[in-house]
Amino acid sequence: MSAMSAEAAFDDVPAAQTALRSRIKWLCRSIQLAAAVWSVWVPGSFLWRWLPIDPAGLIGPLGYALKTDMSGLSATQVEWFLALTLVVWIPDLAVGFCIWRLFGTYLQGRIFAADAAIWMRRVGVSGLAAVAADVMVRKIGLFVLTSHVQLPLSTLLTFQTIVPGDLLRILFSLFVTALALIFKAAAELADDHARIV
């Protein structure tokens, strides 16, 4: 879509979409607020749980899960794990931003428009990126936390590679992406129809 046609699309908001916008305004604002709170809550809750850094508190649960003696875990290892895990917040922040922009587009009355579908697709794609980053960082973090012990490579590679929550997030992200592609095709079809009529 060219810049001229995008500007024209923004100015020509159908009356039906304006009426729908007024009915869902509170919902859009609530979702924007939830996205903003979630974006701050993710790192905040993580830091609340992990600070102050206490390697002794990790030795028991991690050793039990891996079926090995984790004594000797250092604060430096836990600090590196914490830093790596906070990196995952960046793709999560992108998801929150895309959700904010999607519902901002709805609030402007452009509900069944191509730009709304593009933001919806960005929500799905950034969600997939967030899951991929989470899986990778979880695996790298495990290597960091267990670097002082002798564990079989098979244990390191298979321990919590993908958990059920990851599969649910992948499914949701793919669903949103597919829905966005359908909405974009429908918006383009409606634009073509409007030009003909």
- Terminal Cα span: 19 Å
As for the number of domains, it is: 1
Class computed from helices, strands and strand pairing: mainly alpha
Annotation, overall tally of beta strands: 0
Percent of residues in helical segments?
over 70%
Backbone shape: elongated
Order of helices and strands: HHHHHHHH
> Can you summarize the main beta sheet?
none
Determine the strand fraction and express it as a percent band: under 5%
Rg calc:
22 Å
Description of the structure:
The chain is mostly helical. It has one domain. It is 81% helix and 0% strand. The chain has eight helices and no strands. The chain has helices at residues 3-11, 15-50, 55-66, 75-87, 89-107, 114-145, 153-158, 164-196. Helix 2 (15-50) packs antiparallel against helix 5 and helix 6 runs antiparallel to helix 8. The chain is elongated and about 75 Å long.
Short note summarizing the structure:
The chain is an all-alpha fold and 197 residues long. The chain contains eight helices and no strands.
SSE blueprint:
Elements (H helix, E strand, L loop, with lengths): L2 H9 L3 H36 L4 H12 L8 H13 L1 H19 L6 H32 L7 H6 L5 H33 L1
Primary descriptors:
disordered N terminus, mainly alpha, 197 residues
